[in-house]
């Protein structure tokens, strides 16, 4: 509820209900059960992220990760994300991996399983290939 002091400062009526909300990524923590320090989850969809819950923010000088205020007061949600993660995977299947898609249709296998078999043959670092969606 808006306190008398806050009412004077904001012009809102005293007693007005105050409801806290959050962005989709932040409130997803609650839905995934990541509501106490050390609880971590991964969301893989069109975009993807890994988020944990911590008592302190995590600052990455190279700006590869972000830290949001958690929906649980006093906690933080350090997060690493890749926009268009599974969307990129689908794009690669449809654009580059046409042979795997053809073979999958012939054998009843998943084209993604066939793609993964090829990916597993590549050394770490993919021979210098860098893909940024």
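-> sequence recovered:
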């Amino acid at each position: 509820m808006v306190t008398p002091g806050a009412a004077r400062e904001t012009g809102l009526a005293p007693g007005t209900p105050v409801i806290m909300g959050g962005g989709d990524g932040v409130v997803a923590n609650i839905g995934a059960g990541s509501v106490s320090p050390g609880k971590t989850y991964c969301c893989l969809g069109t975009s993807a992220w890994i988020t944990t819950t911590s008592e302190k923010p995590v600052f990455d000088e190279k700006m590869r990760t972000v830290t949001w205020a958690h929906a649980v007061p006093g906690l933080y949600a350090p997060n690493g994300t890749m926009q268009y993660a599974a969307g990129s995977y689908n794009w690669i299947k449809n654009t580059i991996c046409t042979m795997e898609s053809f073979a999958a249709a012939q054998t009843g296998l998943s084209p993604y399983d066939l793609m993964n078999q090829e990916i597993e043959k590549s050394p770490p670092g993919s021979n210098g290939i860098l893909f940024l969606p």
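Residues 119 and 126 are 8 Å apart (CA to CA).
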